Amino acid sequence: MDNGAIIEEVAVQRTNLLGMTRPKLEAFLSSIGEKPFRAQQILKWIYHAGIDDFDEMTNLGKSLRAKLSDMAEIRPPNVVRQLDSKDGTRKWAVEVGGNNLVETVFIPDGQRGTLCVSSQVGCSLDCSFCATGKQGFMRDLTAAEIIGQVWLAIKSFDAFKQGSGRIVTNVVMMGMGEPLLNFDNVVDATALMMDDFGYGLSKRRVTLSTSGVVPMLDKLGDVSQVSLAVSLHAPNDALRNQLVPINRRYPIAELLAACQRYLDKQADTHRVITIEYTLIAGVNDSQDNARELAVVLKNLPCKINLIPFNPFSLSDYKRPSNNAINRFWQVLTEAGYVTTVRTPRGDDIDAACGQLAGEFQDRTRRSERHRRRAETIAQPVRLV
Ligand code: SAH
Ligand code: SF4
């Protein structure tokens, strides 16, 4: 390699500022001889204004802008495809390096706009009813790739410039992957979602959903105020072991005790855990299951969210009838639980819970013919 080539290689190694929390950005600025307070200005440009070009950051001096352009960048992941459902749901396939794709879903509902964000490519936990689990685990997303999904979503609606008319009002870490197995990056990205210089969402509007990685749940309570949703799906260990294999390591009693510890660490004493329960016909949807669930949860401040199973091609499970769902709901409601049933959204574009699997990648694996086709239609396009 000659010297020219070496210089060129060093020159492209810019530091991505997207995904850096305020303290990390301050440390970066200090490390390049700049004032840490500049971090607040830069964060506002990135997250409030959607700017990814230092030259547009007009309240930074010219020399600082030039220095940042040289050493740093603001690089969100690329969107390779955008799909719109007839119910207003929008889904993006987001390229995160190599052939890896994750999916992000926006679900509008009146004044509320919920963005469902992925944390990993695939998932190692292999829950029996989940399309992501069937893929296996590929890799963790970086903090830039996680917060970058929020950035891209807002950009695609051109909503940075709308001031108070927020398009994304809530974020749920309920896309692909187990957030607590990508702990540091998820904590950083959710901190940016809640930071006033980031997206400024309240802690009640940023929800992390976990299948129950108990030690990480304890760690989370020490560093974050994020709202917690726990994927229970069964009222006893025998059944949960079949549906959620991590239950063999951290059974229900340990998981619910960890939920209580999480609540105990929060300054706000009125907070509750959301218990997610995917209803699968003939598997966990009987009234007996509901009665047992009501007993198991009796000491935990919680509300319950029932998710009718969303079918996908690699699963034989079925969604229960509306009658079965209503009966299950009624038992819990009569037992005094605030219980909601999640309406499937965007299922015409495979955007409903559990259907996210990085469609292109799936196809590329299955056959060479599909690989070639995916390459022709999945050329990265920046939606800016
Ligand atoms: N790994 C995390 C977050 C991602 S899954 C977790 O398991 O909580 C988000 C939610 O969708 C979880 O409650 C999960 O159990 C549920 N889910 C997964 N597959 C589903 C399917 N096919 N139908 C309905 N809900 C599903
Ligand atoms: Fe992973 Fe959550 Fe799917 Fe289970 S339900 S396989 S933990 S993404």
List keywords for this structure.
384 residues, alpha/beta, DNA polymerase, domain 1, TIM Barrel, 2 domains, ten-stranded mixed beta sheet, two-stranded parallel ribbon, disordered C terminus, binds S-adenosyl-L-homocysteine, binds iron/sulfur cluster
Written account of the structure:
Mean pLDDT is 89; it is low at 359-384. The chain has helices spanning 3-11, 22-31, 38-48, 62-71, 131-135, 143-156, 183-194, 214-223, 237-243, 252-265, 287-296, 322-334, 359-366, 368-377; strands at 15-16, 72-73, 78-84, 90-95, 101-109, 112-116, 120-122, 137-140, 170-173, 206-210, 227-231, 273-279, 302-308, 339-341. It is α/β, with parallel strands linked by helices. Helices cover 37% and strands 18% of the residues. The longest helix has 14 residues, at 143-156. The chain folds into 2 domains: 3-73, DNA polymerase, domain 1, CATH 1.10.150.530; 78-377, TIM Barrel (Alpha-Beta Barrel). The strands form 3 sheets. It has a 10-stranded mixed β-sheet with strand order 3-4-5-6-9-10-11-12-13-14. Bound molecules: S-adenosyl-L-homocysteine (SAH) and iron/sulfur cluster. S-adenosyl-L-homocysteine (SAH) binds next to β10 and β12.
